[in-house]
Structures are given as C-alpha cells and as structure tokens.
Amino acid sequence: MASTSDIRNGLCIKYNHDIYKIIEFLHVKPGKGPAFVRTKLKSVTTGKVVDNTFSAGHKIEDVRVETHKFQYLYAEGDTYHFMNTEDYNQITLEKSSLDAPGLLKEGEVVTVIINSEDQMPLSVEMPASVILEVTATEPGVKGNTATNATKPATVETGAEVMVPLFINEGDKIKVETEKGTYKERIKE
C-alpha cells in the first residue's frame, strides 16, 4: 500500500476495480481545510481518462510493475507489434494503451510497463522526444513572421504537428511526445 505522498507520474494504481496510470497530479494545500492531491488517471484497459481527488494521507493500492525495453516493429489496424530487445519475444498491444501512437516510428525503442503479477503489458512510455522528417507542409509566406506564427506539417508517421513558418518539406524536426508539439529543427 502506498499513500498520496508516493503519487508521481507513471505510477500504476488499482482504483474502482481497474488499473489506472497517473498521467498528471497536483498537490494542493488550501489556506483553509486539509490538503489534497488532484490527479488525472488513465485506464490501462480502456484508455479512458478520469479526474480524481485524493485527500492527503489517503491509502492507495499500487501495482507492482516491471519495465522492459521494446522495439516497435509495425502496426496492423489498431494493433501494434513490439519486440523485446533482450529476449526477442514479440507482443501486440492495442492503440488505446499507447500515449502517442501517431509519433511512433518503426524501429523506435520504447519502455513497456508490465504488471509483475500476471505479466500483462499495461502501457507504453515513449521517449521524451522523437526526431521525425516533415513529409508535407505549405510553404511559409514572407512577411507573415511578425508574430509567433505556425502552420500544420505532416511528419513521416502520418501525424500532424504545428511548426514555425521556416520549416520546409524534408526537414527533420524534434517533437515532444508528451504534448505532440514541435521543439526544434535538427540540422545534419
């Protein structure tokens, strides 16, 4: 058993007869009344995100998990295939258990969280950022750069990312996986 002081991003807990992963939390200490922890929980079985508030000191049942490195192989509909980089065993996961499936490039190494009790994969943690090539974008209009203007760009995985006007087709960009936002252009 853990308490609210152990809450952190990525912690898997049992809540409402399901396993949830904490994706966001905030400790709140109001001027009047007891402290509490406001959380966003994502179900690892359905992918549904719920908001919940735990009072300070509340006992939560954490799930013992192991992390393993897996390489993304390919997608088949809503099923994604991964291979363990240590023993080469392959697993398949549903699209709902992935945080950012649109930014997943073939050959990318990700961390898969596995429940220690029944060896079931719970969720996939992407690297903090990925480098992708821009495959399609409109050309930037000269003189339209007075503000922090952006335009949509399609990257090699098919995802759409808002990028600055100076980004062209063929450029490699770094994308933050948590928010799916542009970080910087990569020069080679």
How would you sum up this structure, described in words?
By secondary structure, the chain is an all-beta fold. It has 3 domains: 11-55, SH3 type barrels, CATH 2.30.30; 65-127, Beta Barrel (OB fold (Dihydrolipoamide Acetyltransferase, E2P)); 130-185, Beta Barrel (OB fold (Dihydrolipoamide Acetyltransferase, E2P)), CATH 2.40.50. It has strands at 2-3, 12-15, 18-28, 36-43, 49-55, 59-62, 65-76, 79-84, 90-94, 109-115, 121-125, 129-137, 150-155, 160-164, 172-176, 181-186. The strands form 3 sheets. A 6-stranded antiparallel sheet has the order 1-6-2-3-4-5, with no helix packed on it. A hairpin with a 2-residue loop joins strand 2 (12-15) and strand 3.
Radius of gyration: 20 Å
The CATH class of the largest domain is identified as Mainly Beta
Q: Could you give a short account of the major beta sheet? A: 6 strands, antiparallel
At the fold tier of CATH, the topology name of the largest domain is: OB fold (Dihydrolipoamide Acetyltransferase, E2P)
Shape: flat
Structural class: mainly beta
Mean pLDDT: 84
Strand content: over 45%
CATH arch. level architecture of the largest domain: Beta Barrel
Record field, number of beta strands: 16
Quick one: CATH superfamily of the largest domain? Nucleic acid-binding proteins
Q: Give the helices and strands as they follow along the chain.
A: EEEEEEEEEEEEEEEE
Number of domains: 3
Separate helix tally: 0
Spatial order of the strands forming the largest sheet: 1-6-2-3-4-5
- Unreliable spans are none
First-residue to last-residue Cα separation: 49 Å
